[in-house]
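In practice, a research group might receive sequence data for several interacting partners and want a quick structural hypothesis before committing to experiments. The following worked case mirrors that situation: the sequences arrive first, and a predicted assembly follows.
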Amino acid sequence: MKQSGGVSQQGHTAVKVLGIETSCDETAAAIVEDGLRIVSSVIASQAQLHARYGGVVPEVASRMHLERMLPVLSDALAQGNLSWKEIAAIAVTNRPGLLGALLIGVSAAKALAYSLHVPIAAVHHIEGHIYSAFLAEPAIAGDFPLLFLIASGGHTQLVRMRDHGRYELLGSTRDDAAGEAFDKGARLLDLPYPGGPNLAELADRGDARRVRFPKADLGGSLDFSFSGVKTALRNYLRVEPNSSPADVAAGYQRAIVDSLVETTARAVRTARCRTLCVVGGVAANRSLCEKMARLAEEEGLHLVTPGPELCTDNAAMIAAAGHFQLERRGPDP
Ligand code: KG4
Ligand code: ZN
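A structural hypothesis for the assembly, expressed as tokens:
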């Protein structure tokens, strides 16, 4: 990495990585120093634009990324009071995600890396989510192995991280992701996009004990399954169309959250990790965070929940992941 930028108090030159994230409907750019300190972070959400269609329209998302990419990049520099020549490397999400949307970020990153003569790191979006925990609590870098629950709109995984770049997949969803279950449930309840946070808000006003939904029984494995609970909700609404939407939302949320917590509890007992990190968009859920805090207390674990701003899609986590990736294995072509 090109060493540039301001000299920190210890006399070492801080390495500033610019992260770019465009995998879904957030156009984001951020600058992270030494992989762990956020200098600036800008997120232009397209949620309002997609709300009228009830979900993300890929072609609309790509076009909005194209329109917003340069202003978001300029804002990230301005917020950090930096010039382009202080950027030592570019990190960009290149997978997984909406193809056209990813292409906008990757094209911008390549053009910048080429013109600034700096290296580029192509980051896996889920690895980005993992690094949100390092941004929230840099000290966990001394606590390997770490146990991660990653719950987003596209993924639900339990991962044991032995070191930077060394991951063991312990379990994952066999069908829908947890965030997808929230979003599909929201749609069945006629809640506007973005479904997950709206369902969570409604659930907070309901009583989960009044409406019970089944949790998948996967025989003690560390996998997840959320398609059954979604079908159960659809059937319930057909039979009980006049039930209280808040109670139904609360019962539905409880089925998803309890399944995440119970499977994580099983992983805790086998993974031999002292720190548990819960990341990804669904980690913004209040009930999930509360129940994970209880689990951590019972099991004597240190819990890291990075908070809604770092859990949902952002570019700071991509810059952080890119920083350590560049240190480990150098630039991507
Ligand atoms: O990580 P993320 O921002 O994007 C992906 O990588 O998918 O996660 C988005 C997912 C969506 O499914 C959204 O409904 C869900 O996270 N989500 C929530 C909450 N906030 C976002 N789900 C439940 N409760 C929330 N408060
Ligand atoms: Zn994400």
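Before designing any experiment, note the following. DSSP finds eleven helices and ten strands in the chain. Strands lie at 16-21, 26-33, 37-45, 89-95, 120-124, 146-151, 156-163, 166-172, 275-279, 302-304.
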